[in-house]
Each structure stands twice: as C-alpha cells, then as structure tokens.
Write a structure and sequence with these properties.
Layout lengths: L2 H8 L2 E5 L5 E6 H9 L3 E7 L2 E5 L1 H11 L9 E3 L4 E3 L3 E4 L14 H7 L16 E5 L14 E5 H7 L22 H7 L22
Parallel strand pairs: 1-7
Antiparallel strand pairs: 1-2, 3-4, 3-7, 5-6, 8-9
C-alpha cells in the first residue's frame, strides 16, 4: 500500500453516532481514528449479519485478520507494523446530545443539492462556472431560501437577469426545495462503501461536518 493510498483513506468519511446510537455527524477517517485511540469512541461494524462493537485494540486485531481477504469497497491505512481498516461507523461512548436538524444554505450545499448542474440548461459544470440564481429576483422581493435559490451557469444567469423564469421564457429543471438529507451526504449514500450508514439514517437527517 502506498502513502498516497493511505492519505486518501484518511480523508474518507465516517458516520458518528452518539451514545444512544443516533447519527449526529460525519467526520474524516483521520478524526475517527483519533477518537478511537483516545477511547472516546468505538467502532460499529457488521459481523456475520450482526452489529458488533469494537474498541481500538480489538479493531486493530480484526483488521489484521481481514487484511488477508480485503473487500474492494474497503479503505485501509498503513500503520507502523500493520494495516488498519477504516471504519464506516463509530459510536461516541460518552456523548448523548441530540443533533439539531439544521442545514446551512451556502454555495457548497446548494451546488451539491443541484448536482453541480445548471437548473435552466442542465449543464453539469465545475463550481467555478456556476453561480447562485434567485428564481424570484431579490429586486422583486425574492428571499434567499432553499425554495428560491438554484444553481445556474453564468450564461443562463445573465440571460435571465432580473426577471422571473416565466418572464425570461426559461424553464427550471425542477422546483427548488430544502433537501431532506445533507446534499453531500445523499451523494455518499449512493456509494456502496457507505451502505452500512443507511441503517442509522432515517429520512430527514441533515448532518453537519460532512467530510
């Protein structure tokens, strides 16, 4: 395993549960390992169809056993003498505060909600070529809310100007709305490596600190 592979593995995401097994946030694998090493958290993993809890020492031992038959969706980090498997879920052993289900409206989250696609012409573009468009222009009293802001390419934003889509004869791909999940989280749930998360994420979860 190369250093680059280990670095990429440390940047992958880990779901964090509170003491009562309620999802509260998502952090990087690097942060998760710090919590495990400090005995502030334990790993939650599926073993033979059953959820099993592991402290840091037992997780290291399990990693040694699994290293001979790696799954293609797993991520591994090279330690001094062995490789350690990146957990997908950890549980905080002394934290029981509930997460407040709020999602900040900003460029990153809005572009993720819209799939980095202009909501007028449908082009998929990098962030540098997207802008925020108020469906009902601010000059007409339009608010900066999830229901009134969409991702737009610079060309469509200029074409629309200070008009409504109807006035500009432009059609939205879909009506904007506040997402039920954190947009970046929804993208991760489509990845097979995060399949285990779905058992702990009821509809409407909007977590913070998406890695």
């Amino acid at each position: 395993m190369s250093r680059d592979e280990s670095r990429r593995a440390l940047d992958t995401s880990v779901l964090v549960l509170n003491r009562h097994y309620v999802a509260v946030r998502v952090v990087s694998a690097q942060r998760a390992f710090v919590l495990l090493y400090r005995e502030a958290a334990e790993v939650i993993d599926i073993d033979r169809g059953q959820f099993t809890n592991y402290d840091f020492a037992s997780w290291c031992e399990l990693s040694r056993l699994r290293s001979s038959a790696k799954d293609r969706h797993d991520d591994w980090v090279r330690a001094v003498r062995f490789e350690i498997l990146v957990p997908r879920i950890i549980r905080l052993v002394r934290f029981d505060r509930m997460h407040t289900n709020s999602l900040r409206l900003n460029r990153r989250n809005l572009f993720a909600r819209d799939g980095h696609r202009c909501q007028y012409c449908g082009q998929s573009l990098p962030v540098s070529q997207l802008s925020l468009d108020h469906v009902v222009p601010r000059s007409r009293g339009g608010a900066t809310t999830w229901e009134n802001v969409v991702a737009s390419c610079l060309r469509c934003n200029t074409k629309k100007g200070g008009r409504t889509p109807q006035e500009a004869r432009m059609k939205l791909m879909r009506q904007p709305a506040q997402p039920s999940h954190h947009p970046a989280l929804s993208l991760k749930l489509g990845n097979p490596k995060y399949e285990i998360w779905k058992s702990f994420l009821p509809r409407g979860t909007a977590l913070i600190d998406i890695a």
